[in-house]
Specification:
single chain, 600 residues, alpha/beta, TIM Barrel, eight-stranded parallel beta sheet, three-stranded antiparallel beta sheet, 23 helices, 39% helix, 10% strand, globular, Aldolase_TIM, membrane, Glu_synthdom, glutamate synthase (NADPH) activity
């Protein structure tokens, strides 16, 4: 360890350490004075102006008291702030590795840019991945693989109580609000969705005129602020909602319970980003932060949530209604499931948002340390619905760092019905990951309300890129599905993907992840005891845990080695997995997902 860290009274290395330090600290300021004096002596106006401005800046730095660095290092201290402002760009273009994700790697962004621009996305000279690294995953191709002609993979969302089911793509635009994104970005996304035949989630900031301009299919997201359908006190206004929800452009209604970027906190749109248009669209006042509360006022229990879902379905004319959440306390979601079963009334869909999501800004602690990651959250929701015997009643969407065909295929293999992407489509309209979304200074005009900055985003050309990115990503998905020997991504199963463990062994995802048995939760017979315990804790009348019920369950339960009931070749008869060159144990993820066959 250096002597300077252990010796409390070190001897100075120089005879005049203080004088030397002063000279070093003020050397840049001194150089500016010399430059100014040289300009005066030589009567050189260029030197006079440059030196004078530098001297003035140095004097200001010495007089100000806000920044100690500038006081100690006048003029030179500004270099630190310049480098700090451009740190993301310097890191992206000069320092980071092609595979380093912060939060998206250069290779991931390049893939989106290439597909959006309709240029080749192939690479040469082999993979950059370490194929022997812990966690590496890959699809197992089939000996009977063949190309798929129809690449427009679609599903139908809508349950028994839904009168207007929605035919939608398996890859859609995730929730991003007007206000967080610029008007031009919203128009480009919606026009691209219209061109490509996929669906655009409005985000909780309400449906703006820019969402409506090109007529692309919309999912209207209702957050805790009920923007676009709220009264003067910020509560839900049924009449205002009904008036807007019956619009034919609105295809589905989504209640946002929580979001991946900051689950449990609500949201904030800074006052400096609120324009008169945003204020009118959201029905909020100008000049103050637009705050979404942390929780809803329209319901306070799981049972009331189920009633609210049906109310929205009725007010919208029978359109698909569901909710989005980032999983937090597991028994709370199970309480909602119990309330659904009691009422025999189910949402048409649920979207699981991973904690790795987030297109805007959030506190670091919430981004890093609150909320469940996507895979864990999705599998919990999926297994709960399977264990409750109602998985076939509800479609499941997922969102969270999904940008490639592999990302989509992997999640569909685990049991999802469709995938959403937010940042992927932001890249398609020009985002460069400058990470300045919350500052209103986005350099590409994507996440800003500055009229001059967003003017640089050309709507027609960016809309083409949005549509191309979607089309080419589905082509990539089709290539994977065909290579596995299937005809539609809904046929993908967890055993089609292998994963390397930290000890070098390889496991299929069907063995790596836990998949519950159909109806197992109803009689507390799940193979994972923690699922039984959380199910017992869930109370349909409250979001609070029923700890008394858990204590009673633990007292009465016995570890008797529950039967697994895992499906095998002999027990799969009821589900036709179609031609599958890698068929092993049938429908592992316990989903029966009807898909729209290709038109001849």
């Amino acid at each position: 360890m250096p002597d300077s860290r252990t010796n409390l009274n070190p001897e100075p290395e120089h005879n005049s350490p203080y004088l030397t330090g002063v000279l070093l600290r003020y050397s840049t300021f001194g150089a500016a004075i010399l430059l100014f004096l040289a300009g005066l002596l030589l009567v050189n106006w260029v030197l006079i102006i440059i030196g004078g401005l530098a001297v003035g800046l140095g004097i200001y730095d010495l007089l100000q008291s806000k920044h100690s660095i500038l006081s100690n290092y006048p003029i030179a201290g500004h270099i630190r702030y310049v480098l700090e402002d451009f740190r993301p760009e310097i890191r992206q273009y000069l320092l980071e590795d092609d595979k380093e994700q912060v939060p998206f790697s250069r290779q991931q962004r390049a893939l989106v840019y290439q597909r959006a621009k309709n240029v080749s996305d192939t690479n040469a000279f082999g993979t950059l991945d370490n194929l022997y690294a812990h966690g590496k995953e890959w699809f197992l191709q089939s000996a009977v693989s063949e190309p798929i002609k129809n690449k427009d993979f679609r599903i139908i969302v809508g349950g028994e109580r839904c009168k207007q089911p929605h035919d939608m793509s398996v890859f859609n635009i995730s929730a991003m609000s007007f206000g967080s994104l610029s008007a031009n970005a919203i128009m480009a996304l919606n026009q691209g969705a219209k061109m490509g035949g996929f669906t655009h989630d409005s985000g909780e900031g309400a449906i703006s005129p820019y969402h409506r301009k090109f007529g692309g299919d919309l999912i209207w997201e209702l957050g805790t602020g009920y923007f676009g359908c709220r009264d003067d006190n910020g509560n839900f206004d049924p009449l205002s909602f009904a008036e807007k929800a019956v619009d034919p452009q609105v295809k589905m209604i989504e209640i946002k319970l929580s979001q991946g970027a900051k689950p449990g906190q609500g949201g904030v749109l800074p006052a400096e980003k609120i324009t008169p248009e945003i204020a009118e669209t959201r029905q909020v006042p100008m000049g103050q932060d637009c705050v979404s509360p942390a929780s809803h006022s329209a319901f306070s229990t799981p049972r009331e949530l189920v009633v609210f879902l049906q109310q929205l379905r009725d007010l919208s004319g029978g359109k698909p209604v569901g909710f989005k959440l980032c999983i937090g306390q597991p028994w709370q979601f199970m309480a909602i499931v119990k309330a659904m079963i009691e009422a025999d009334n189910y949402p048409d869909f649920i979207v699981i948002d991973g904690a790795e999501g987030g297109t805007g800004a959030a506190p670091v602690e919430f981004m890093d340390s609150v909320g469940m990651p996507l895979i864990d959250g999705f599998l919990f929701v999926h297994n709960t619905l399977v264990g409750a015997g109602i998985r076939n009643q509800i479609k499941l969407g997922v969102s969270g760092k999904i940008v490639s065909g592999f990302d989509i295929a992997r999640l569909l293999a685990l049991g999802a019905d469709w995938c959403n992407s937010a940042r992927g489509f932001m890249f398609a309209v020009g985002c460069i990951q400058s990470r300045s979304c919350h500052t209103n200074t986005c350099p590409t005009g994507v996440a800003t309300q500055d009229p001059y900055r967003q003017k640089a985003l050309d709507v027609p050309s960016k809309a083409e890129r949005v549509a191309s990115y979607h089309k080419n990503t589905l082509k990539s998905l089709a290539s994977i599905v065909g290579a596995v020997g299937l005809q539609h991504p809904s046929q993908l199963q967890p055993y089609h993907i292998a994963r390397r463990l930290d000890d070098g062994q390889i496991k299929l995802l069907s063995k790596f992840f836990y998949f519950t048995d159909k109806g197992a939760l109803l009689d507390h017979n799940a193979r994972s005891e923690v699922f039984n315990q959380m199910w017992v804790m869930a109370d349909s009348s409250s979001f609070l845990a029923n700890n008394d019920a858990l204590i009673a369950y633990n007292k009465d339960s016995r570890d008797i080695g529950k039967e697994t009931g895992a499906p095998t070749e002999k027990t799969v008869g009821e589900v036709d997995v179609n031609i599958d060159g890698g068929k092993m144990i049938g429908n592992v993820n316990n989903t029966v997902r009807d898909f729209i066959p290709p038109t001849v």
